[in-house]
Each structure stands twice: as C-alpha cells, then as structure tokens.
Target: DNA polymerase IV
Amino acid sequence: MNLPKLRKIIHIDMDAFFASVEQRDNPELRGKPVAVGGSAERGVVAAASYEARKFGVKSAMPSKTAKRLCPSLIFVKPRFDAYKQVSLQIREIFAEYTDLIEPLSLDEAYLDVTENKKGIETATQIAIEIRQKIFEKTQLTASAGISFNKFLAKTASDINKPNGQCVIKPSQAEAFVETLPIHRFYGIGKVTAEKMKAMGINSGKELKEQSQEFLVKNFGKVGKYYFEIARGQDHREVVAERETKSVSVENTFTQDLELVSEIYGDLYRLAESLLVRTQKHNLVGKTLTIKIKYADFESITRSKTIENGYFQKEEINKTIDYLVENLMPFPKGIRLLGLGVSNFLDEKTETGKQLNLEF
Model:
C-alpha cells in the first residue's frame, strides 16, 4: 500500500511590511513607533511597526486608540503603489522555486514546494534561500513557517518573528497543536475565541476533545475545519491566484463580516445578481472569481475554471463552496465581497449551449 506523499508547504510572511517599507525609505522613521494609515484624530491603522506594537498598537485599530496607547506614534500615509512594487519583487523570488503560489495579501503567501524547480531536497533550505534573497533585493526581512499543511505552516511563521523561521514536522504536529492557546489558532478570531472560552475551550487540547458534530452545530461549516486542525490536519490545497477581467458584482458592508454563514449567504445572493447580468447579455464565463477585501483594505481573489461554463446557479454555488472552504478560516473581518465571471464562451462555437436559463 502506497501512503500519500506528504506535502511541503512554506508560509512566507513579511515583517511589519507596510511600516518596514516606510522605515526603509525614510531613515528618520527607523527605530520609531510608526503607524501606516489614519491620523491622530481619525481613521484606522493599516499596519504598525514593531516599535509601535510594543505599546499594543495593531492593524485595524482606530487611530485614536492607537495614539492613546502610544502618544509618540508617528502616522504615515499609505503608499500602496510602493507596497505593490515590493510585493511583485517578492513574488518573482517565489516563482524561482514554484508556480504553486497562493498570496493571502501583499505581504504573505503560501508556497507548495513539494516539487520545486531547483530540485532542493528540503523546504527548510528553500525558505532560508527565499528569505535571504528577499533581504538582498528589498532590504526587508521575512519570516517563514514550514510544515506539511497550510494551517501548521501559517502558525509556524509567527513563532520566531521577526526575521526567523520555524519547522513543524509530522511527528510534532499533534503535540504542538494541543498546547496552542485557542486565540492563537489561525482563523479563530476574537469573537469566536471568546465564544469557545465561554464553552470551556481554551487550548488545542480542549478543542480536540469536541466532536465534529458539536463544532459544526455551534460554528457552522467552519466547524469541520476546527475539528481537523485540532488534530494537526488541513487538507486545503495551495491555490494559485489568477487575475481575471470579468463581469462582476460586489457588496461593501457597513459592519465587517466575521461569521462564515454571513459570508456564504452574501456570496449566494451575489450569485443571483451575477446571473441576471450575464443572462441579460447572453454571456457564459468559464472562470468564476471571488474577491475579498479585508477590514484593513487588503484584497485577494480566487478563481476556478470549468469547461462548460457557469450558466446555472447551482454550479456557481458549488464553486463558491469550494473556493470559500479553501480560504477558510478568514484571518480578519471582511468589508467587501465580490463575484465575477470571465473567460467567456464563444457563442459561435458553443451552438449547443442554452444561455438563457431560469434560476
């Protein structure tokens, strides 16, 4: 019997990315508490330097709160063009090793290096090389987590920050997860963590003691994910991001979404609106893309292509389920959701396709 081959997953996370770019480009800011975004009077902190974090300043925190915690805090206007340029430089380095790159934002990504372009035997060595090249090219530091699945790699990247890396081997996974405080689990946000603590679930060990039925009943579809990660399991694939031009619909929320049930519900409603638009123009796209903008304004997209195209609500919802399940859990609140189709079928060559279907 051949056992499935263990994957080699690296999670690369730039250290205080936006703030570090500002400190790199402006020597007067080095060694000082810096907040990117907002002002002393209004707005929200998009990123904070490590000097500011020592005072408790965090991303997505109201600027007034940040200033109260750190009176010497220096506010800097964000320069997203500069951050995107550095992010592209980093992605070029990733691409030297693998094409399986799943960006989570401008400053972090998963890499599947099970099979890598350079034939390097260990993911640990690849992570060392990538971090060294990033520093040489950008003068910025990155941290890395290395393991056999996304959850563990993501968790590991936070352990030796800044400018460090950590490996979690298969033999270490369950013991490591058991000792992890529940608020340190990636995807268990503040609201969910408080709910779990009220149930007596304070650690990975106590999470592991809960049945899958109990977790699904109390937390919805993401409960299955919680059940698996409590055992060090995560079957999500590294899904490469594809940029697409599309007919799309989107919704911006007055309050950030945190509950997975709300995210699914809104995407299903967007699917209905999207079908109305595509059917009106007799368009069937082969590629469906979801767009997510987080509370700190960073955006990601994920896509899936099917040969027959998306002309039925059921097929769109099925792909929504697939894409969301591969993104869960969400690291922060969501302020915008979008849905689009692209890569349209050519009506002249798809003569058998019925384009106007009821839904």
In short: The first helix runs from residue 17 to 25.
